[in-house]
Write a structure and sequence with these properties.
5 strands, globular
Length: 176
């Protein structure tokens, strides 16, 4: 009798382990909720965004920027002051799903050079697709400096976070 109970316990344990393993794979393949509102539409999974205009990356799951500073790649929750005028909402982002893409930066820069200066990419904030309704909005593209870089003509003079708090430059942009 003890052998039967022991065997059943092992079998149930193995089945439970396989179920958890399958759930883990599903969660890793879908990260729309981690993508910021300024991210490009059309991707259910994105590890990194490459931003050709500033030759820098955004680590989507960790919500960190990765940029070159003094010949070393640095991670930070905000872009450095030299990029304070970069508009995350209108700059083109290329989704790169490979580990540590900056280690191959020369290849990536050459491959996506044609996207530099483009400002015609639809972003999550502008999408009406239901899958983006729960996107991550902890970083609204203010580069960590407390002031937004435009609000695309929305919010009637309010800041990028939708409140009338004096932030944002209220210029708005035309997507043409």
């Amino acid at each position: 009798m003890k052998k039967i109970i022991f065997t059943a316990a092992i079998l149930i344990g193995c089945l439970s382990f396989k179920t958890a393993d399958a759930q883990l794979r599903i969660n890793l393949g879908f990260n729309v909720g981690s993508q910021p509102e300024w991210g490009p539409v059309g991707y259910t999974h994105a590890e990194y965004y490459y931003m050709p205009d500033i030759d820098a990356y955004y680590d989507v799951p960790n919500h960190q920027y990765v940029y070159n500073q003094n010949n070393a790649w640095v991670r930070s929750s905000a872009l450095p002051p030299r990029y304070q005028n970069y508009d995350l909402y209108h700059g083109y982002k290329v989704v790169v799903n490979q580990p540590n893409p900056w280690q191959h930066n020369a290849d990536i820069r050459a491959k996506y050079a044609g996207y530099k200066g483009r400002h015609d990419q639809p972003i999550i904030r502008e999408s009406h697709d239901q899958k983006y309704s729960n996107h991550w909005n902890g970083d609204r593209g203010n580069n960590g400096n407390g002031h937004g870089n435009g609000n695309n003509g929305h919010d009637n003079g309010k800041g990028n976070d939708g409140r009338d708090n004096g932030h944002g430059n209220d210029k708005g942009h035309d997507n043409k």
